[in-house]
TrEMBL record, chain A:
<keyword id="KW-1133">Transmembrane helix</keyword>
<protein>
    <submittedName>
        <fullName>Carbohydrate ABC transporter permease</fullName>
    </submittedName>
</protein>
<feature type="transmembrane region" description="Helical">
    <location>
        <begin position="151"/>
        <end position="172"/>
    </location>
</feature>
<feature type="transmembrane region" description="Helical">
    <location>
        <begin position="184"/>
        <end position="202"/>
    </location>
</feature>
<dbReference type="InterPro" id="IPR000515">
    <property type="entry name" value="MetI-like"/>
</dbReference>
<feature type="transmembrane region" description="Helical">
    <location>
        <begin position="279"/>
        <end position="302"/>
    </location>
</feature>
<feature type="transmembrane region" description="Helical">
    <location>
        <begin position="232"/>
        <end position="258"/>
    </location>
</feature>
<dbReference type="InterPro" id="IPR051393">
    <property type="entry name" value="ABC_transporter_permease"/>
</dbReference>
<feature type="transmembrane region" description="Helical">
    <location>
        <begin position="30"/>
        <end position="48"/>
    </location>
</feature>
<feature type="transmembrane region" description="Helical">
    <location>
        <begin position="90"/>
        <end position="114"/>
    </location>
</feature>
<keyword id="KW-0812">Transmembrane</keyword>
<keyword id="KW-0813">Transport</keyword>
<feature type="transmembrane region" description="Helical">
    <location>
        <begin position="341"/>
        <end position="364"/>
    </location>
</feature>
<keyword id="KW-1003">Cell membrane</keyword>
<dbReference type="Pfam" id="PF00528">
    <property type="entry name" value="BPD_transp_1"/>
</dbReference>
<feature type="domain" description="ABC transmembrane type-1">
    <location>
        <begin position="147"/>
        <end position="362"/>
    </location>
</feature>
<comment type="similarity">
    <text>Belongs to the binding-protein-dependent transport system permease family.</text>
</comment>
Length: 376, 309
């Protein structure tokens, strides 16, 4: 946290640095010290009460939260006092930084601690350190690895989503009437909450007796349409529902990319007698690669959080065939209150995600550089 | 001469005819794709809205078109207390629904607002000044903020459950607002950073010369210019917060439960009437559908920023 105090702004050209009197600097240091002292004091008092040593009337940790906010204000004030114009600049980033540090870094550290404990919320005991037991249990948990494998399938489905989104973006980009109408309509699925969608599509339209999709499937000649009985079919149904919501996101990004393409290149290609097919593969697609990569990466990030639809439509069934990691941990917590083990699974998932995305970005970066050299 | 000219023009005409045929076919293809996808997008919504006016036999016979296949009834809406004949009566279901609805409205609007304020400030600072937080330079600080986007909610959910219990924030709107702000903050920063980069620095320099402070220049000059970007960021945040289910399901129970959690809990119970579920779903998605249709321009602008350089 004291890194934040070391925040220093290099002077820009157009502001004349104003000299800050030593007394003001001293006041600034005092303000900061007072804030810190108060935060530490309140945290200490609360901790003492938690340990049962003294009772100071703090029923919860809430006062520590207020003390943190107060400390943040004092920190900002002392920055302005001590560093003048530079301090005022630091005030732009400080609130967000303090907020994220409090909301992410601290909970993550806490999660790391919890993941090596045996902690069941429904029992009265607090967390108990149990070393590597959770890790061993995870290694032997077929359902967790099954969920992980499902995530691979779900992520691979993005290829199809990307193809559809690109096609729709191309169609929307071409000369059509009522473009605005179609754009609004195509955007609507993104507005719907996955939970409402779960009922609308998963539970009613795909219902195998009266659902319109089931009727449609029957009309196509499928005797007994059960969308969630067979593992692969269930997985596919989840993929379709998720794709339905998120295709608009990729479509809009790709459409923006298409609109920013240089018009002259297309014209030149047409004058040279290239067919639309050639124009697409030789010009449009290569030029769109950077935008495509952005769209796919964003989509992957959202896909890795996939859970709402699964929780509400199949609860992971049949036999864990549709479980995503998130929905699996959700049930681990919800049904079994297994906070320690669930948190370890989540932390491992985070590590895998970060490793995966870093590798992906590195590979893409290297490949794009090679690609650029080839083109130029 | 005349004969030659004649053949040329017929050749041209023939060419244009095949070309026209090709273009016609292409147009036909384009419009069929458009219509097909429009149906795919709209049918679930149409189905939900019409089902909320159906009765049991209509559902079972798979009726689709109101007034042709079946006569619309207020059954589903009556069970929510929102039909014309029950709207003025006391209804516990409606009270429950309105409470959840208000929870959703308050949490999503406050969280989006907070995220836009915090995010815009940070994005402006990062796009204009050079910072050094220990070893971290501007690029690292930006990355620190944006990297929050990949954090899966499940990693934070369980620690937050324990922390919120200690902080007495469990099942409160404030608790949800703080989490939702965190969730959408990276997106806001991403959008706003691009917005501020597009504002010429000369404007602020002129303002500084005129005697405004840095904050004055930001509030009086930059803010009004980048307001459309802020609206886009706000709307996108609003959509994400309104639809959020995971945290709400884990961290709220009776007081701060939001609309998605209510919808989900109704789905789970067996033997729930389709028409009431349809009415509830319609009511849950309607606000965002309206927002989507009216503010489509901003949503698209928001999603397109940052993706295209």
């Amino acid at each position: 946290m004291d890194k934040a105090t070391a925040a220093a702004v290099e002077p820009d050209d157009f502001v004349i640095p104003d000299p800050i009197p030593e007394s003001r600097k001293r006041l600034g240091r005092m303000v900061f010290a007072a804030g810190t002292l108060m935060l530490v004091a309140i945290a200490l008092m609360r901790a003492l009460q938690e340990l049962g040593i003294v009772d100071l009337g703090f029923a919860t940790w809430r006062p520590v939260l207020y003390a943190y906010i107060f400390w943040g204000v004092m920190l900002g004030w002392s920055q302005v006092l001590r560093r003048g114009e530079d301090g005022k600049r630091a005030l732009f980033v400080l609130p967000a930084a303090l907020f994220v540090v409090a909301m992410v870094v601290f909970p993550l550290l806490f999660a790391l601690y919890v993941s090596f404990t045996d902690w069941n919320l429904s029992s009265l005991d607090g967390p108990e350190f149990n070393g590597l037991d959770n890790l061993r249990r995870m290694a032997d948990d077929p359902f967790y690895w099954n969920a992980m494998l499902n995530m691979v399938w779900y992520t691979l489905a993005i290829v199809a989503e990307y193809a559809i989104a690109f096609g729709l973006a191309l169609v929307l980009h071409s000369q059509i009437r009522a473009r605005k109408f179609f754009r609004v309509v195509f955007l609507l699925p993104l507005m719907l909450s996955p939970v409402a969608l779960s009922w609308m599509v998963g539970k009613s339209m795909m219902e195998n007796r009266f659902g319109p999709l089931a009727n449609f499937a029957r009309w196509l000649g499928w005797e007994n349409p059960a969308f969630f009985a067979d593992p692969w079919l269930a997985r596919l149904s989840i993929m379709v529902m998720d794709a339905w919501t998120f295709i608009p996101l990729m479509m809009i990004i790709l459409l923006a990319g298409l609109q920013s393409l240089p018009r002259e290149v297309m014209e030149a290609a047409r004058v040279d007698g290239a067919t639309p097919w050639q124009t697409f593969w030789k010009i449009t697609f290569p030029l769109m690669l950077p935008v495509s990569i952005t769209a796919v990466i964003i989509r992957v990030i959202f896909k890795l959080k996939l859970a709402d639809i699964i929780i509400n439509v199949t609860s992971g069934g049949p036999g864990g065939a549709t479980d995503s990691v998130t929905s699996f941990i959700f049930r681990e917590y919800r049904d079994r209150s297994n906070v320690g083990y669930g948190t370890l699974l989540a932390v491992v998932y985070l590590v895998i995600i970060v490793a995966f995305l870093v590798t992906l970005l590195n590979l893409l970066g290297r490949w794009m550089r090679g690609y650029d050299q080839e083109v130029n | 001469m005349v004969a030659i000219e004649d053949t040329i023009s017929t050749a041209q005409r023939q060419e244009t005819q095949t070309e026209r045929l090709q273009r016609m076919l292409l147009r036909l293809l384009v419009y069929s794709i458009l219509l097909l996808w429009a149906v795919i997008c709209l049918f679930p919504i149409y189905w939900t809205v019409t089902t909320s006016f159906k009765m049991a036999p209509d559902v079972m016979r798979g009726h689709l078109v109101p007034w042709v296949d079946y006569t619309p009834q207020w059954l589903g809406w009556r069970s929510l207390g929102l039909s014309p004949d029950t709207i003025f009566n006391v209804s516990t279901v409606r009270a429950e629904f309105l409470k959840r609805f208000m929870n959703s409205v308050i949490t999503s609007i406050s969280a989006s607002f907070l995220a836009v304020v915090l995010g815009s400030l940070a994005a402006y600072g990062l796009s204009r000044f050079r910072y050094r937080f220990g070893p971290m330079k501007n690029a690292d600080i930006s990355f620190f903020f944006l990297s929050q986007l990949i954090l899966p909610p499940v990693v934070l959910a369980l620690p937050f459950l324990a922390l919120y219990r200690e902080l007495a924030l469990l099942d409160t709107r404030i608790g949800l607002i703080l989490l939702y702000t965190l969730m959408v903050l990276p997106i806001v920063i991403w959008i706003m950073r691009d917005q501020f980069k597009a504002v010429p620095v000369e404007l602020e320099e002129a303002a500084l010369v005129d005697g405004l402070s840095i904050w004055g220049a930001f509030l009086r000059i930059v803010l009004p210019i980048s307001l459309p970007g802020m609206v886009a960021a706000f709307i996108l945040s609003l959509i994400l917060c309104w639809n959020e289910y995971f945290f709400a399901a884990l961290l709220t129970s009776t007081e701060a439960k939001t609309l998605p959690v209510m919808v989900a809990s109704q789905t789970g119970s067996q033997g729930i009437n389709w028409w009431s579920m349809a009415a509830l779903s319609t009511a849950a998605i309607a606000p965002l559908l309206i927002v989507g249709v009216i503010l489509e321009r901003y949503i698209i602008a928001g999603m397109a920023t940052g993706a295209v350089k």
